[in-house]
Amino acid sequence: MMENLLANCVQKNLNHFMFTNAIFLCERLLAQFPSEVNLQLLARCYLSNSQAYSAYYILKGSKTPQSRYLFAFSCFKLDLLGEAEAALLPCEDYAEEVPGGAAGHYLLGLIYRYSGRKNCSIQQFRMALSFDPLCWEAYGELCSLGAAEEASTVFGNVASQRLQKTCVEQRISFSEGATIDQITDSDKSLKDTGLSQTEHIPGENQQDLKIMQQPGDIPPNTDRQLSTNGWDLNTPSPVLLQVMDAPPPLLLKNMRRPAVEGSLMSVHGVRVRRRNFFSEELSAEAQEESGRRRSARIAARKKNPMSQSFGKDSHWLHLSPSESNYAPSLSSMIGKCRIQSSKEAIPDTVTLNDPATTSGQSVSDIGSSVDDEEKSNPSESSPDRFSLISGISEVLSILKILGDGHRHLHMYKCQEALLAYQKLSQKQYNTHWVLMQVGKAYFELQDYFNADSSFTLAHQKYPYALEGMDTYSTVLYHLKEEMRLGYLAQELISVDRLSPESWCAVGNCYSLRKDHDTALKMFQRAIQLNERFTYAHTLCGHEFAALEEFEDAERCYRKALGIDTRHYNAWYGLGMTYLRQEKFEFAQHQFQLALQINPRSSVIMCYYGIALHESKRNDEALMMMEKAVLTDAKNPLPKYYKAHILTSLGDYHKAQKVLEELKECAPQESSVHASLGKIYNQLKQYDKAVLHFGIALDLSPSPSDAVKIKAYMERLILPDELVTEENL
C-alpha cells in the first residue's frame, strides 16, 4: 500500500508540474522499494525537470526495453548519439526490437540523421509511421529529407486499417487496465515472449482495481507492474463505474507477474468466472438491489468492507483523465471511439479477446470480432464501430491535406502547397502551424507582401508561438520594415529569451541597420541556444560575407549543411562567397547543388547565369537568364542581368528592349536608369542618356554608383577628344 501511495503521489506531482517534489517522493519510493519500474519513474521525473544527466546516470546499464528507451532519450538530450544508438538497437542478449515502438524508431531516425546516415534515418522514420500512422513528426522528417511518399499513400487505406486494429486492441486493453505504451507495443511484446494466451494478471482488469487496494492479498510489487508505467489505477472511467456498481468479485488465485516487463498481458478465450465474495444471502440481496435506483445500490454497497478502501481520505489518489501526463488513447484523440459502459451489474462470466491474436488478424478478422460484439450488444457496438471508422476517416483526411502541403513545400512546389492548404476547413487553416506554412510558401515565392500578411495573422492570433518567427523577421528584413522588425524582436525576446528564433529576429534587425558585427553576435547567441538550428548558421555566414570575411562565412555555411544537407540557402551562400572571390567554377558547382534542391528559385538561376557569364559561357548564361525570367516574371533581377549580358555582347537594341520592360516594373530602381543611360550613350542618343543618368541620380543610388553615373555624365558634356572611355 505504501508503494502504491507514493507512486500515485509522484504521478500527481508530475501531472501538476511539481517536478522537484516528484523527484523527492520518487527517491523515497525507490529507496524503500527498489525495482526497475520505480527506477524508470525516477528517470521520468528527472527528464521532466530537464535533468537528462541525472536520468543518464541512474539508467546506465539497465536492460529492460523501457529503461533502454529512457536511457537513449537521455543520451540524445546530452548529444551522446553513439550511446543512444547502442541503447536502442537490439543486442545479441535481447530478443526485443527497438524499444518504444514508433517513438523508438523516430528517435533512432533522428540519431541517424544527425550522425550523417541519411538512408538509415529514412528507413527508421518509415518504420515509425508503420507502427503509428499518426506519428506526424516522422512524416515531417521524411519531407525534410526529400524522401516522403505521397500523403494519400501514407495516410490511406493501410493507415486506416492499422488504426482500426489499434483501436480495437485499445478498447479491449483499456477494459483490462493496460497502459498506452503497452498497447502500442502489444504485437511486438507478445511475439517476443512467445505467449499466445496468458493467465489473468492483477491490475490488468478493472475488476481488480478495488481488490488491489486491499493490503495483504498481493505482494507489494505485483500491482506496480502496470500502475507506475503511466496508467492511473484510480482514474475514473465508464468501466470502473460499471464495476463499482456491482458486488466486487473474489480475488483470483494462481496469479503471476508478467514474464517480460512492458509486455501486454491479457486473457483470450478464457472464461473467467466470478466467485462469490459474500454469502449467498448477500449476493441475492445485491441482485435484488441491482434493479433499484442508484442511491439504493450505493447504500447497499456501503456494507462491503472492500469499498472502505476508497474513502474520502483517498480522493487525492484519483486523477482525472485531463490530469494525466501521458498521451491520450487513440480512441480519445479521435473522439469517436467510446468504451462501452453500463449501469447494469457485470455478468457472471466475462470473455475477453487477446490483443496478440487480434494483432495478427486481417481487417476482415477484426470486422468479424467487432460483429461478434455487435451480436452480444447490438445497441452499442454498431454505433461505436461506425463512429470509430468515421473518426479515423476524418483524422486521416486532414492529415492527407496537411501532408500534401508539407511535402510540396519541402519540394519547393510552393503554388501546389498553397492550393493544398486551401482545401482545409477554416478552423484548421487558421491554426498557427498552417499559417506558418502558408507564410513560408509565399516567402519562397518571394511574395513578401502575402508572406507578411500570413505571418502577421499567425502572430496576432498566437503571440506565444515562436516557431517560424525567424522567417517572419527575414520577410520584414526584405521589406525593409525597420520599425516593425525592431518591435517584433523586442516582443519575441519578452516572450522567450531562450528561443533561437527570438535572437534571429534581433540579429536581422541589426543587419538591416548595417550593424553586421552586432548582428553576428545575435546569431551566434541563437546557435548557443540550439546548435542544430540550421538557419542561424546560415545567417551567420551571410554576416561574415557582408564583412568580407569569406573563410568564416564558408565555415558557417558548411556547419549548416552538416545539420541539413537540403538547406539550399547554405549552398546559395557558398556560391555567392565564391562568386565574390571570382572563383567562378566553384560558384557554379554550388549553385547547381542549390538548384537541385530548389529548382524553382529564379534568384539562384540568376546568379548561376552570372557565374556562367564570368566564365565566358555566354550562351549558357543567356539560357539560364531566360529560364529564370520564365520561372518568375515578377522578379526583376534576371531581366536586369540579362540586359547586362546582352550589353557586354554588344547587342544594345535587345538590351534596351529588356530594360524598357524592366523600367515599367521597377520605375524607382536607379540601376535600371543608369544602365539605360549607358545603352543610349552607345547608340549615340545623348539626350536620352543624359535624361536617364539624371533620373538615376535623383533616385539616391549608392555612393559608388553615384560616382560612376557622374563620370558618365561628364563624358557626355565634354568633347569626345578630351575624354576617352579608357579614362573612366
pLDDT below 50 for ≥5 consecutive residues: which ranges?
A: 178-380
The biggest beta sheet reads:
2 strands, antiparallel
Number of helices: 41
- Gross morphology is elongated
Structural class: mainly alpha
Strand content: under 5%
Radius of gyration: 34 Å
Please provide a written account of the structure.
The chain has 728 residues and is mostly helical. The chain has a domain at 151-208 and 231-310 and 326-411. The chain has 41 helices and two strands. Strands 1-2 form a two-stranded antiparallel sheet. The longest helix is centred in the middle third of the chain and has 33 residues, at 378-410. The termini are far apart. The model is unreliable at 178-380 (pLDDT under 50).
Keywords:
elongated; 728 residues; 41 helices; 2 strands; mainly alpha
Q: What's the topology here?
A:
Elements: H1 2-15, H2 19-32, H3 36-48, H4 52-59, H5 65-77, H6 81-88, H7 102-114, H8 118-131, H9 136-144, H10 151-154, H11 157-176, H12 180-184, H13 186-193, H14 207-212, H15 224-227, H16 238-244, E1 272-273, H17 280-289, H18 294-301, H19 330-334, E2 349-350, H20 355-359, H21 363-376, H22 378-410, H23 414-421, H24 426-429, H25 432-444, H26 448-461, H27 469-478, H28 482-495, H29 500-512, H30 516-529, H31 534-546, H32 550-563, H33 568-580, H34 584-597, H35 602-614, H36 618-631, H37 636-648, H38 652-665, H39 670-682, H40 686-698, H41 703-717
Helix pairs in contact: 1-2, 2-3, 3-4, 3-5, 4-5, 5-6, 6-7, 7-8, 8-9, 9-22, 11-22, 21-22, 22-23, 22-25, 23-25, 25-26, 26-27, 27-28, 27-29, 28-29, 29-30, 30-31, 31-32, 31-33, 32-33, 33-34, 33-35, 34-35, 35-36, 35-37, 36-37, 37-38, 38-39, 39-40, 39-41, 40-41
